[in-house]
Amino acid sequence: MSRNGWSTTSTPGSARPVYGAQYPPLQSISGSPVKSSPITKPSPHNKFADYENSVSDAWDSRVVLDQGAACASAAAVLAAHAASRDDTIMPPVSAAPTKNSKTQAMQRLAIQKEPLPSASTPTQHNQVTPSPIYPRLPEISTDDKLHPDKGKDRDAARFERLRKVLAARKNSNGGRAGSPPGEIDMERLRDDCWMGIPHKLRPTAWRLLSGYLPPNQARREITLQRKREEYWHYVEQYFHTRFDDHHNDTFRQIHIDIPRMCPLIPLFQQKLVQEMFERILYIWAIRHPASGYVQGINDLVTPFFVVFLSEFIPQHVEVGTFDVSQLPREQIELVEADSFWCVSSLLDSIQDNYTFSQPGIQRKVLQLKHLMSRVDRPLHVHLESNQVEYLQFSFRWMNNLLMREIPLRATIRLWDTYLAERNGFSQFHNYVCAAFLRTWSKQLQSEKDFQGVMILLQNLPTQSWSDREICELTADAFSLQSVFDGASRHLTSGQSSP
């Protein structure tokens, strides 16, 4: 085969020609001449031929390497590297990381599609009937063995308040006494939503808690109509630019990531749904050039999408297997627009997780490490003694908000609390991560080496998690926040003061 008149055949062990270089291709080792370009000057050819002859032994396939010497040299390099290892809080971050290094780091640390194999995990995953992906909470807190009636009565009263507030008419008073007519008391709403939201009320509650829907009921319909039209205006204005040179890389990465998303849930494998996600993520990316699209952001759309889609699906139908094409086009467009605005609100609160060098994630990983050194010292020492860096497992926890660690139905229930908690995604999540790590303290300490600890951390047995586990997790996180929130010295001692 030839290109521009040059032969591209090569002998194993020989140097291959590099097209576009300043010198003509090399002659083959056998000495057979290679066609020369008539416009090539002889002087550079002679110089390069001399250079080739002087180093020809480096390309000669007949040269035999001393394997013993090579292994000894490699061992010496590794020993020198180990001796110079600096036990810092986090692996060093380049002062000026490139775009490619950032992408590669996110792929390595945050994007793991399947759990690692574990001896304690059943391998017959496909034989297990998949659980529903949308949590329903009519029996919330009734598992309290000591006071079952108390828990049931408490939740019944809370649910009734939520129904009155979220289903109130425009002219009714949805707040406390003294609130303006039609104005929802957001503090009371947050309190009532913190322990979980009934599934029928969740779409409206999430819109309110995200700041997408105004608390004044008289402005709801006008605001929703305006924001939904604004989203589709963005789609009309910008989506056609996805194939432009300066946006093509962004869209290509989105297009690659979406089919990999939730591969075991049929809902997300539908072409129509994937096209909706492409529009949501692309429009968000070009409107936020400081960060752009980063792998992992696609996961954060899925809870909103499932919640808003459930609003149009009969109660007896499982969301995870529903054919979205059965819905009218108008309803599909509402789900897409609402998902866009709510995930935008979430990402605005944690955007420093995805900007240049990910300062938000770096800060959260450091805080988690200091927090664990105080609330579970034995586990912290065990991780350090086995050379387990917090960044190696908690980067994904921060980047994907634990979505890769717990099932989607548990994530949606957890987000009830995150949305009800002020700064839930940006601050409270860190305490949830600490509580989550403490949950597995005994199991982790029973692992005696780095490999065992990391396999467990990346394949935690949370497949059956539901409301009860999330309630326990958030309660523990709340207790940690009550002790440490605002007491920055507890989380920064050990660091040099600025």
Automatic annotation (TrEMBL):
<feature type="compositionally biased region" description="Polar residues">
    <location>
        <begin position="25"/>
        <end position="40"/>
    </location>
</feature>
<feature type="domain" description="Rab-GAP TBC">
    <location>
        <begin position="196"/>
        <end position="422"/>
    </location>
</feature>
<protein>
    <recommendedName>
        <fullName>Rab-GAP TBC domain-containing protein</fullName>
    </recommendedName>
</protein>
<feature type="compositionally biased region" description="Polar residues">
    <location>
        <begin position="118"/>
        <end position="130"/>
    </location>
</feature>
<feature type="region of interest" description="Disordered">
    <location>
        <begin position="1"/>
        <end position="48"/>
    </location>
</feature>
<feature type="region of interest" description="Disordered">
    <location>
        <begin position="117"/>
        <end position="154"/>
    </location>
</feature>
<feature type="compositionally biased region" description="Polar residues">
    <location>
        <begin position="1"/>
        <end position="13"/>
    </location>
</feature>
<dbReference type="GO" id="GO:0071889">
    <property type="term" value="F:14-3-3 protein binding"/>
</dbReference>
<dbReference type="GO" id="GO:0005096">
    <property type="term" value="F:GTPase activator activity"/>
</dbReference>
<comment type="function">
    <text>May act as a GTPase-activating protein for Rab family protein(s).</text>
</comment>
<dbReference type="InterPro" id="IPR035969">
    <property type="entry name" value="Rab-GAP_TBC_sf"/>
</dbReference>
<keyword id="KW-0343">GTPase activation</keyword>
<dbReference type="Pfam" id="PF00566">
    <property type="entry name" value="RabGAP-TBC"/>
</dbReference>
<dbReference type="InterPro" id="IPR000195">
    <property type="entry name" value="Rab-GAP-TBC_dom"/>
</dbReference>
<feature type="compositionally biased region" description="Basic and acidic residues">
    <location>
        <begin position="142"/>
        <end position="154"/>
    </location>
</feature>
